[in-house]
Amino acid sequence: MAESQPLVSNHAEESGTNDGQAVPAEGSAPVAQQAQQQPTKLESFFAITKSLIIRALVIYFISSFFRRPAATPDPAAQPGSPAAPRTSAFNYFENGAMFDLYVYISEDYNFADFDRSEFLVWQHNGLVYGDWNSGPENDGVFTYSTQFSASERVQNNGSIYIHAYVVKSGQSINPHDTDNYAGRNVGYSRRMLNKFKKIKRSKTHNLLTGETSNPHSSEETDTFVTEEIVSHWHPNLTINLVTDQTNWVRGSVPAPFDEFITFLPGGHTYLPVIFFNDYWNMMRDYQPLNKTTTVLELHLTFQPLSLFKWQLYAAQSMKNKLTGGLFGDLMASEEQDEDQDSLKEALLDTSPVLLGLTAAVSILHSVFEILAFKNDIQFWNNRKSLEGLSVRSVFFGVFQSVIVLLYVLDNDTNFMIRISCFIGLGIEVWKIQKVVNIHINREALILGFLPRITFTDKGSYVESSTKQYDKLAFKYLGWLCFPLLIGYSVYSLLYNEHKGWYSFVLNMLYGFLLTFGFIMMTPQLFINYKLKSVAHLPWRMMTYKFLNTFIDDIFAFVIKMPTMYRLGCFRDDIVFFVFLYQRWIYKVDKKRVNEFGFSAEMEQEAKMKMVPQQPAAAAEKPADEKKQD
Fold first, then answer.
1. What was the pLDDT predicted at 258?
2. 419, 406 in Cβ contact below 8 A?
3. Distance CA 169, CA 127 (A)
4. Element (H, E) at 437
5. What number of CA atoms fall less than 13 Å from residue 380's CA on the CB side?
6. pTM
């Protein structure tokens, strides 16, 4: 085993209180600036909750394919003989047992240097198992702070581990202490203190002047986006000792608890569980380890933990492993870390009533989105006539969905957002074959191998006056949008920084659609005005979308957000209220065909055909039924 340098310095302090705050380390000024730029509590909690709901469904359906197989029978057992009864195991640490805590820090994954005191960072004797009232604050909490030098290996993406041991008082964890050596009767757990995170750095600059305010853009590299795996450090860590007397049975411990429970030979006893808890460490507080990091601070907290809380923390750690294994880098990003931080801040600093209300409204928002998707597909699937509908708006919806998808792919966005954009684009593309006739000519090839695809308007669209009104509406819309688009592109080119021209075009189009996207709904208003009708609209889908917009309006007052985004929530309301006003002033025309190709007169005629059959059916009634009548 390689010789290691002493880690612990003399600057150590032990106390019995813990305020949960890390002592500021060197170079914390950039961290403070980053913290000021972070979103406030509840700013993205609404979107995070929706993402968690969808992600939980995805994980549940995927994990259902990886169920634990049934236990195989013991080959040594005699055929036909009854299975050996499983014995319930007891906790080796009974309530009230005295024990000692030993904490070592080493760069070795397998630690065995118990004789070298420089690796021992914390030793606390005389603890009582199951005691929740010890410590200076009478809450069972003990804390310890220390500093140690970072070795050259740690500064260059090396790993450093913490090893924690609990042993009954009077026994020793050192194998060289033959008189008091506890053998296997030692609770043990290890954890890597540093955490490796992938950092993406984008080089941006002004496309006209070449100047930049991004410090990463000054690096002499040819790539616009660089990825680097860097070791990070957080000074806070909690050592939890699970206090529980559950009679676990070997082979029947559910996941993920089976990874933590260690049974002694014979299966009649199991060792207490030591759980390293860093759930409440904010991801943005992790500091990168490099050559400038010479001293590392560590603040340890020892605290007993109930079985229920341990189950919650263990399930959370299992979720992180599962998502990391199934989705890989797709789920691991800096935005994902920011989402987790926002969720933790909301749980810590927000009232339970507001949290419960937010969660409930988020579920409703997700349900309304699914219903809007469902009714939108049903509307276009059953549509027989295109009278009164803007076909050009369908093609523009495809263009808008493509721009949004390319934008989220060009930026480091959440995996679930990418999936949502893919689904939205698929629905918009599917609508094309509902509004136009698609002809594929395999004889007239493009470039010698691509078939030529042509689009022609459907008869119901050509024969009605809708096509003329649709063309006229987009003509007026172009007069308004093109000057706005040119002005916005000039502003973005002069004052914003971009990775390149491709990124500039995407950012410019996406920003324009986000700012002026509501204008694209005006052609349908114009067609409604000309036709003096709104019966052709998908009112169910629009109602669900309006409910979601109304929910966004509520959170626009509660959550801090940019002014333009807040205005965007209210501008959709204005358009929908115009739709409602048109529905009110344009009366029902029984001759008008609805979205399913039927009119009120057609339904009345169908009912009239059924009326003559009713007397004949009544004449065929049995005599006893006639008497009852």
1. 86
2. no
3. 9
4. strand 436-446
5. 20
6. 0.61
